[in-house]
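Please discuss these two lines.
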Amino acid sequence: MTHLTRCPLNPARARRLTTSPQRLHAAVASAFPPPPTGQTTRHRVLWRLDEKDHEPTLLILSPTPPDLTHLVEQAGWPRLATPNAPGWETRPYAPLLDHLHTGMRLRFRLTANPTRAVSRPGRRGIRTALTAPADQIQWLLDRAASAGFTVPVDERISPAGHHVTVSATRALRFPRTTDSGARRDVHLHTATYDGLLDVTDPDALRRTLTDGIGHGKAYGCGLLTLARFAA
């Protein structure tokens, strides 16, 4: 069963985490126990950091509920935590997944790492970030059909405009230590999309919601979330 968790963070204490996707990735990974000895598991965990009015909220989508005690102690409000309100809230995702049907119109938010592959003669292609809003939006539109939805046209913008905006972008650079112990810098450009979508393939959209979109999933990209749309 899939679960969606929301954890509000204390902006005064969380800055060390919120400014480093590598540290936040490690904090999220620590919320789940390792598999039993000798076993491996495909444990797809997606996360995203949302910020509204400078108040950060961590969203986590996971196959099992996380234990965020360490995160609340480090970057939340630990003195306000109680057994019934530990500082985060986890809900089953099945009701939303089961409710999807063709023709539904929903609001969505997505933080992604829009890129394109640039070929190089005789060498492996290199992935390059898309930084222009028009290119970032086209990147999403190009993936919508296989992801199980379309983005409706908004003729108030233009005859070819769509109900989607890039509401925030970030250019991040942070160190990462590889499995071999080598240290290298990671450059990550993210775009946060807000808009409307129409469901065209519920099964494909369910896979998108649980598997994510695009690259950079370890660093807070790929998690698509939905909300009701009131016309």
